Amino acid sequence: MEKPSSVNPSPDIVPEQGHGLFILCEGTFQAGNSSLSFYDTEAGEVYNNVFSSANDGAKLGDTGQSMTLHEGTLWVVVNSSHVIFAVDPATFKEKGRITSPEMTSPRYMHFVSDGKAYVSQLYDNRILVVDPETYSVTGTIETGMEAGSASVEQMVSYGDYVIANCWSYQKDLIRIDTRTDKVTDVLEVGVQPQSICLDSDGKLWVLTDGGGWAENPTGYEAPRLVKVDPVKFEIEETFRLALGDSPSELQTDASGDNLYFLNGGKVWKMSKDASSLPSEPYIDFAGSAPYALTVCPWNSDIYVADAVDYAQNGAVVRYSSDGTVLDEFRTGICPGSFCWY
């Protein structure tokens, strides 16, 4: 697929909430060239490098990992630079940042309340507790995993609990009581739970990657899509993919009735009520390296990030909810995370 080359690198816009998508680009590892792009869904215009442009050339740093939007602030997690930026999504200007000697490899930030958030880390057997109002780390949650190989990833809230998937070299979900900041339950779901989401029935879905390589000390198996009752914290159903598959990026659409994920360079769609995995892909992606996925919460348009060769500027392809190509635009290097605004 030919990649368009025209973008607006220096935005003179005021984003209107409900009409935009932030794209965090990882950049090249150890090059310190992570960047932030903004796509105006109404105008069909992309604005690249908006953080640097709005902050006198300041850089995000190395390996932009993830984003979350909470109460009018966009939080940008930059993994290898050990920092989380607070950004005004309407101006792209920095409002503050969280740094700490304990923040060694932040991955995802999840808000428990306006005054408390959890931060997961790679190869750390603790979850950090942070105060977003003071930009400080206020505590830690011991997960019980082995130090040095533990990796908590994504988190979702369910009542007074947060459920998190433990990814690299792990097999479990953990459930945390947010009133005590303690792990109360552990559930084994398969080798390397990669991503999680909640459907419209309140059921938790977990996508494992099966270990990724035959010599993985934790195990190597066919990846799984697992349905979990978050109240009983029990597995309800397990769907097995093929050995050697590498699924990722589990999502729901706006209704919460359908699941989407990437596997084998394709986008797959499955009803939450399905009795088997889909036999055919929903979208046969025509790009080079599908790397991230999001589904629009307003109209269920599907956006797939293309990392191309992981060294040059990437692209995002937008599809309608029926899988028709609508648009394509260039971003920074290695677009890897989306956040709706």
UniProtKB/TrEMBL annotation:
SUPFAM superfamilies: C-terminal (heme d1) domain of cytochrome cd1-nitrite reductase
Entry superkingdom: Bacteria
Residues annotated as signal peptide: none
Name of the molecule in the record: Glutaminyl-peptide cyclotransferase
Organism field: Candidatus Cryptobacteroides intestinigallinarum
Source species taxonomy: Bacteria, Pseudomonadati, Bacteroidota, Bacteroidia, Bacteroidales
